[in-house]
Write a structure and sequence with these properties.
53% of the residues lie in helices and 8% in strands. By secondary structure, it is an alpha/beta fold. The chain has 3 domains: 153 residues, Nucleotidyltransferase, domain 5 (2-Layer Sandwich); 116 residues, no CATH class; 155 residues, no CATH class. The strands form 2 sheets. Strands 1, 2, 3, 4, 5 and 8 form a 6-stranded mixed sheet that branches. Strands 6-7 form a two-stranded antiparallel sheet. A hairpin with a 6-residue loop joins β2 and β3. α7 runs antiparallel to α12 and α14 runs parallel beside α16. The longest helix is centred in the middle third of the chain and has 30 residues. About 14% of the residues have low confidence.
């Protein structure tokens, strides 16, 4: 009886299990091609199949085509190269530019810092929609004999490095048919001596500083001056983020102190100075939490004093200027040259004001920065001011305002320098009949004096009647040379163009007004395309000296890949 009961129980259990399985079927495991299959030979089969596919496309393409009786061959890499057509399109675009082309020159390095390259980028405005273009044109390897000069920038470039730079520029000019069409060449100051004597270029402007490198240098110097304090803040954040338990305690204390900052703590990437800036901004918002953390968590031993937090707050005031300035060239679309003047002038003004402050820490922080930045300002303020004049919302009014704030009584002299630079540049663009004579600031149109008709007596200058005097005056006015206001003078005399900043595109404005200013618009398109920075947008915040490329390819292959990637954007 017991055995029969046990068998019935077992039978009922199997029935219940079957019903449960039907109601709730067993879920299948996600597919995993690494070995979840019940077939023990699956990994081997998979490898064999993949190897067969590789052999099919690598070594048996011809036999595959024959078996399938295909008449159209599979395109090979040599037969179809979309970048060849893209290069041709770029060449045609450059050839069709009515104005001139500017170049920027930079140095890149390989990931192992064994190889260095000269990279040349073209900057220009097209004739169709007046879009600003920035395209890599050439990449040239620097021979090993010149590498020591590159690495030790304190040493003036040797003849070998100078030859490489010269040849790279001349090759670019030759390959892209830019002879006689160069407008500006922008290089970092460390390479200026390598191109001082390059007379073959006939370029209008040589810009000796890279805007992005200057700003990045200021930011790194400012952060470096407070390195011990920043290290303590970084270690404090590491402590809080080291475990979920500690971070929870930190958040509890934040809530208890009713601190409503939404900034989240994170540890910076020390190879990118903008991450250090953002780390400090977030930490400063939570300084009171860090100040009370030692009493809330006995294991926290790092002490950042209130005075140090105050110094960090001062530091971040100027780091904000540097970050905003660098972020301009980190934007998706590279800005026109007119955008830089007000930003650079603002930094110059603020550093000048801070360097004369009675606050000892502020003066100590900003004086070295001002000394470094003044060199950039003095070398570049003319071209920056010329560029902002071509912003119809600002013109010379902005230059005047900034110069009075920076130079005071000497502002008039500085403004005359800018005005003369504008005039000199205008003369090179103006049509022959519009070119001023002698030292006049306006053009003249010479008219021939009227000749007397047959039977007509010449005017008697001895007559004293009012009528005769009136006629004499009229004829003399007609004979006098007539002055014609140039396009430049007409543009500067017109009232400022009023439009919301966010809705304004300076190149579109000049495209729409090129009928009114046919010559000045060509000049504007060239000036507004001047490159003031040589760095790639993705390298603006890096602390390294050169942009690094992870590649061991040959220079020719590397040039093809980099240029192709840039052209296919």
């Amino acid at each position: 009886m017991t055995d029969q009961s046990a068998q019935q129980d077992e039978s009922r259990k199997r029935a219940r299990d079957k019903e449960k399985e039907e109601e709730h079927p067993k879920k299948l495991k996600p597919y995993n091609d690494e070995g979840d299959s019940d077939d023990d030979t699956y990994p081997l089969k998979r490898r064999l199949i993949l190897q067969g596919i590789r052999e099919l496309y690598a070594g048996h393409t011809a036999r595959f085509l024959a078996n399938q009786r295909l008449t159209t061959p599979i395109p090979s890499r040599s037969s179809v190269n979309p970048c060849d057509s893209k290069k041709q399109s770029l060449s045609e675009l450059i050839h069709g530019v009515p104005g001139r082309i500017s170049l920027s020159l930079d140095l890149w390095t390989s990931s192992n810092h064994q190889d260095y390259y000269v990279v040349l980028t073209g900057h220009f405005t097209d004739d169709g929609d007046w879009n600003l273009h920035r395209r890599i044109l050439n990449l040239v390897a620097i021979p090993s004999a010149s590498l020591e000069d590159v690495v030790h920038q304190a040493i003036l470039p040797s003849a070998s490095l100078e030859d490489v730079v010269h040849q790279a520029i001349l090759t670019c000019v030759s390959n892209w048919n830019l002879n006689g069409r160069l407008f500006a060449l922008t290089v970092d100051h460390s390479l200026c001596s390598s191109i001082e004597n390059l007379e073959q270029l006939h370029t209008q402007l040589l810009i000796r500083h890279c805007y992005a490198r200057v700003i990045s240098g200021l930011a790194q110097d400012a952060l470096g001056s407070m390195s011990p304090t920043i290290t303590k803040i970084r270690e404090s954040i590491k402590f809080v983020k080291s475990s979920e338990f500690r971070y929870t305690k930190f958040l509890e204390l934040k809530q208890h102190l009713d601190i409503r900052s939404k900034k989240k703590l994170f540890i910076d990437e020390q190879t990118k100075w903008d991450t250090t800036y953002h780390m400090l901004v977030a930490a400063l918002k939570l300084k009171n939490v860090f100040g009370g953390l030692s009493s809330y968590d006995p294991d926290f031993k790092i002490d950042v004093s209130p005075e140090e937090w105050k110094q960090v707050e001062t530091l971040l005031t100027y780091m904000k200027y540097f970050f905003d300035a660098a972020n301009m060239v980190n934007a998706h679309q590279y800005p026109c040259a007119n955008a830089f003047f007000t930003v650079v002038a603002k930094i110059q003004e603020e550093l000048m004001r801070a360097a004369t402050s009675e606050d000892s820490f502020l003066k100590l922080l900003t004086t070295p920065l001002l000394q470094k930045f003044e060199k950039y300002w003095e070398n570049c303020y003319i071209i920056l001011a010329v560029a902002v004049v071509f912003d119809p919302r600002l013109k010379m009014a902005m230059v005047q305002k900034v110069f009075y704030q920076i130079y005071g009584e000497n502002a008039v002299t500085r403004m005359e320098i800018v005005r003369n630079a504008l005039s000199d540049l205008w003369f090179q663009y103006a049509l022959p009949e519009e070119t001023p004579t002698e030292n006049e600031g306006v053009s003249t149109i010479k008219t021939e004096p009227p000749t007397a008709s047959q039977g007509e007596q010449p005017l008697d200058r001895t007559s004293n009647t009012d009528f005769d005097m009136m006629m004499l005056s009229w004829f003399e006015r007609q004979r006098a040379p007539k002055k014609k206001t140039s396009e430049l003078d007409q543009y500067l005399e017109e009232t400022l163009y009023e439009v919301p900043v966010k809705d304004f595109d300076v190149l579109v404005w000049w495209m729409q007004n090129k009928a009114r200013y046919p010559t000045l618009s060509r000049m504007a398109s060239d000036v507004l395309a001047i490159p003031l920075s040589t760095l790639d947008s993705d390298f603006v915040f890096d602390t390294a000296t050169f942009k690094t490329m992870d590649s061991s390819l040959s220079p020719s292959t590397l040039e093809a890949l980099i240029c192709d990637k840039d052209w296919l954007k």
